[in-house]
Amino acid sequence: MSVQIVETAPFDGQKPGTSGLRKQVAVFQQSHYLENFVQSIFDTVDGFQGKTLVLGGDGRFHNDVAIQTILRMAAANGVGKVMVGQDGILSTPACSCVIRKHHTFGGIALSASHNPGGPDGDFGIKFNIGNGGPAPEKVTDAIYARSLAISRYRFMDAPVVDLSVLGTTQIGGMVVEVFDPVADYADQMASLFDFDAIRDLFHRGFRLRFDAMHAVCGPYARRIVEGMLEAPVGTVIHADPLPDFGGHHPDPNPVNAKDLIAFMNGPDATDMAAATDGDGDRNMIVGQGIAVTPSDSLAVLTANASLVPGYRDGVAGVARSMPTSAAVDRVADALGIPHYETPTGWKFFGNLLDDGRITFCGEESYGTSSRHIREKDGIWAILFWLNLLARTGDSVAGTMQKHWARFGRNYYSRHDYESIDSSRANALMDHLRSRLDSLPGQVFGALTVAEADEFAYTDPVDGSVSEHQGIRIFFTDGSRIVFRLSGTGTVGATLRVYFDRYDAERLDLEPQAALAHLIKAADDIAAIPAFTGLPGPTVVT
Ligand code: G16
After folding, report:
1. Which of 91, 166, 240, 265 has the fewest CB atoms within 10 Å distance of its CB?
2. pLDDT of residue 122
3. C-alpha–C-alpha distance, residues 98 and 87, integer Å
4. Pocket of ligand 1 contains residue 466 by CB under 6 Å
């Protein structure tokens, strides 16, 4: 085995987005493409020589190829040891858990998260630091800068490592440990939740339908839910990870998991249903006739923290991404704890968690988690709901009704305009930006604009500033519209428009109807059809 220095040239646009570098598989298949990015990580980050890295992915197409490449490059760059999930499998939350538990230098997670997989789908790579969370912006910016100047990468000429067998082997001087990707994570879940109460719930006949969407959570859910918690075999559906996710879009929302929603609206509905995404960090909670919005889920978990052993000592504070509804803010106010509003992207929660300022955090994009790791965590959220229902004996719908009766309801929806021309999307945002000063006081139907701004965030822990994080229009009745361009798409641009309206009295409106006047105002303010060329949103959640 010998180290080779391979000549290369920079690629355009290896800029990590909201969550790592995500591109179509064909882009990653270009020679040197992955290698350039991986070498840019090694060239940028200090102090990994001789240390341990964690490596794995969600099993999507190209996972196996990429892992073998990264192993050889890690060996050639002087990494001491790489811990790889068996068969290359490692959910994003489990990656965070393992980095933290084993105090490793960091980790590399291979996934394009909720984006479709397969040869025509997407692939992605993300570097996580020693706290288990995504590298902060200053690190990802530096990796990107390096990728623009790269001319060589280091590669170890070595045979393929068999990832199907647990145990250790060597590539040159580097140890490769193939480990059980579920064990540490399952132990952590058992330490946080009341497994006895959840087991009892299942023994009493509670029925769950857990849709793993043929993505990474299948093996985790089978072992934890059907194994440790003794839910009936068959509770977890679509449980085998497939390279193309069975042709489905592994994004747990009411649109992509429409069969699950139909099932829960039908005669055979189970007591609860849940789904997780490609890499296991997103979740959706569904009850009979109700899909819980992620914003509401975060609020409910915060309000019920005392029912869960891992959080009995109280909640220090909460954080939500800016476009997430303000439902959790009301709970935080009632509990007398601080709440923070961060830009979209899990990395922005890292400092708040590390500093002990928050216990829970979440986002409208179906992500919820806590201080236990530094990623969002799909199975964690589902177990939290099971723990809650086991303790209260209530249903999902009943839990929501009681929550709204106590705190009022934030009607919430997100409208996506996908795959639009990037220049048109940017023109729409520029147009909005140019109107920010003139909007206050303007009337749109029954709504009057109170304030309009472009969200910028100053991290309260390290003072770093992130600008251009979405345009916010506030109305005098307290409702809000947010316009933002997605940071995770791989084709053209995606415009996201978020609607949030609080109502303390009318709790049973249909959300799109409750938000109709805001939706109309958004079209009027931003001329969405004219700019996007689309008559309406392509996805409504
Ligand atoms: C990623 C980030 C999330 C973020 C989401 C936003 O999710 O990890 O923190 O909320 O992107 O996506 P967009 O920029 O498209 O609105 P994931 O699950 O793709 O890693």
Report:
1. 166
2. 95
3. 16
4. no
The per-residue pLDDT for 19 is 80
Instruction: State the Cα–Cα distance between residues 112 and 486, nearest whole angstrom.
Output: 14
The CATH number corresponding to 2-181 among 3.30.420.40, 3.40.120.10, 3.40.920.10, 1.20.120.1630 equals 3.40.120.10
Tell me, using a 6 A CB cutoff, whether residue 348 lines ligand 1.
no
pLDDT of 371? 98
Question: Which atom of ligand 1 lies at the shortest distance from residue 282's CA?
Answer: 18
Q: Give the model confidence (pLDDT) of 429-466 as tens digits.
A: 999 999 999 999 999 999 999 999 999 999 999 999 99
- Ligand 1, atom 5: closest residue by C-alpha: 345
Q: How many residues does the chain have?
A: 541
pTM for the whole structure: 0.95
Number of Cβ within 10 Å of residue 288's Cβ equals 16
377 C-alpha to ligand 1 centroid (Å): 13
Residue identifier of the C-alpha nearest atom 3 of ligand 1: 345
**Domain 409-540: which CATH number of 3.40.720.10, 3.30.310.50, 3.40.50.300, 1.10.10.60:** 3.30.310.50
Residue ranges of the chain with per-residue pLDDT less than 70: none
Secondary structure in 3-state letters for 400-429? HHHHHHHHCEEEEEEEEEEEECHHHHHHHH
Burial of 393 (0-12, 13-18, 19+ CB in 10 A): exposed
Which of 15, 18, 115, 420 is the pocket-test mutation for ligand 1 (most atoms within 8 Å of CB)? 18
Count the neighbouring beta carbons within 10 Å of the beta carbon of residue 162.
10
DSSP string across 480-503: EEEEEE-SS-SSSEEEEEEEEEEE
- CA–CA distance, 139 with 110 (Å, rounded to integer): 18
Q: Residues with catalytic annotation? A: 113
Q: Provide the 3-class DSSP secondary structure of residue 204.
A: coil
Q: Does 185-407 carry CATH code 3.40.120.10? A: yes
